[in-house]
From TrEMBL:
The keyword Oxidoreductase applies. Belongs to the short-chain dehydrogenases/reductases (SDR) family. Its EC number is 1.1.1.47. SMART domains: PKS_KR. Keywords: Oxidoreductase. It holds the Pfam family adh_short_C2. Residues 12-188 form the Ketoreductase domain. PANTHER family: 3-OXOACYL-[ACYL-CARRIER-PROTEIN] REDUCTASE FABG, SHORT-CHAIN DEHYDROGENASES/REDUCTASES FAMILY MEMBER. InterPro entries: KR_dom, NAD(P)-bd_dom_sf, SDR_fam. One of its GO terms (molecular function) is glucose 1-dehydrogenase [NAD(P)+] activity. This is Glucose 1-dehydrogenase.
Length: 254
C-alpha cells in the first residue's frame, strides 16, 4: 500500500452529524480533502447550505435533528437514495450547558442525553445493517476531555461524553468481526470562535488550560479533522476500539 492509498478515503460516503459548524465542519474539510463524499447533517438549513457550498461538489447535506430518534432510519434511507450507502458515520452532534447537578433539571438532562447518547445510538443502529451487508465500515464518536476527567459545572455533558467510551468499546467488540471498525477522537482545548470568546472573558481559565497542556497552546480545528481521516482510513486498519486524545498532552500533563 502506498502512502497515498493508506490515507485515501476515495469511494467513501461519510455522514457527519453537526457537520456544518465547529469541529464537524473541520472534519468535513479533512475528509473531503482525503477524497470522501461528505454529507453534513444538522438542524439549520442555512448553515448546512453555506458549509456544503464552501466544501464543494464532494459535499451534500440533510436537514435532520438527531434528537428526533424515531427518524434515524429515514435519514439513512434519504442519504442512501441521494448519495449512496454510508460507509463512514461520525457521531459528532451535541449540545452543551454549564450547570452543576443541583442546577440541572431532569428535562435538560434528558434532552442533552437524547442528543449525544440516544441520538448517536439510533443513528449508529440505522447504519450498521448496511455496513454489515457490505462487510465494511467505520464509525467514529467525538468524545471529549470530560470523557476522562472531571470539569466543574458540566455534569450532564460529562455524563454523556463518558458514555461514548463504553459505546466505542462495546461496539468495537461486537462489530469488528463483521468488518466494521469503531473508534473515537477526544479533542482537547481547540481554538474556535466560541473558545476564543470564552477565554477572552476568563484569563485565569485560559492560563489554567495552557499550564496543563504540555505543548503550551490550543489546538486547531484541522487537528481534529486529520485525526478523523486517519482513524477512518486504511492507515488505521488495525486500530479498533480506541478513543484518541488530540489534546497537546493534556491527559498526561501535571
Amino acid at each position: 500500500m502506498s502512502l497515498a492509498e493508506a490515507f485515501s478515503l476515495e469511494g467513501e460516503v461519510a455522514l457527519i452529524t453537526g457537520g456544518a459548524t465547529g469541529l464537524g465542519r473541520a472534519m468535513a474539510h479533512a475528509l473531503v480533502a482525503a477524497g470522501a463524499q461528505v454529507i453534513l447533517v444538522g438542524r439549520r438549513k442555512e448553515n448546512l447550505e453555506a458549509a456544503a457550498q464552501e466544501l464543494g461538489p464532494k459535499a451534500g447535506y440533510a436537514v435532520h435533528d438527531i434528537a428526533e430518534t424515531s427518524r434515524a432510519g429515514e435519514l439513512v434511507a434519504d442519504v442512501k437514495a441521494r448519495y449512496g450507502d454510508v460507509s463512514i458515520l461520525i457521531n459528532n452532534a451535541g449540545n452543551h450547558f454549564k450547570k452543576s447537578i443541583e442546577e440541572t433539571e431532569e428535562a435538560e438532562f434528558r434532552q442533552l442525553m437524547d442528543t449525544h447518547v440516544t441520538g448517536a445510538y439510533t443513528l449508529t443502529r440505522a447504519v450498521v445493517p448496511g455496513m454489515v451487508e457490505r462487510g465494511r465500515g467505520n464509525i467514529l464518536f467525538t468524545a471529549s476531555m470530560t470523557s476522562f476527567f472531571g470539569v466543574p459545572r458540566v455534569f450532564a455533558y460529562t455524563t454523556a461524553k463518558s458514555a461514548y467510551l463504553g459505546m466505542v468499546r462495546s461496539l468495537a467488540v461486537d462489530l469488528s468481526p463483521k468488518g466494521i471498525r469503531v473508534n473515537g477522537v477526544a479533542p482537547g482545548f481547540i481554538e474556535t470562535d466560541i473558545s476564543r470568546k470564552a477565554m477572552a472573558g476568563d484569563p485565569a481559565r485560559k492560563q489554567k488550560v495552557l499550564d496543563r497542556t504540555p505543548l503550551g497552546r490550543f489546538g486547531l480545528p484541522e487537528d481534529i479533522g486529520w485525526a478523523a481521516v486517519y482513524l477512518c482510513s486504511p492507515a488505521a486498519r488495525f486500530v479498533n476500539g480506541v478513543v484518541l486524545p488530540v489534546d497537546g498532552g493534556m491527559l498526561v500533563g501535571f
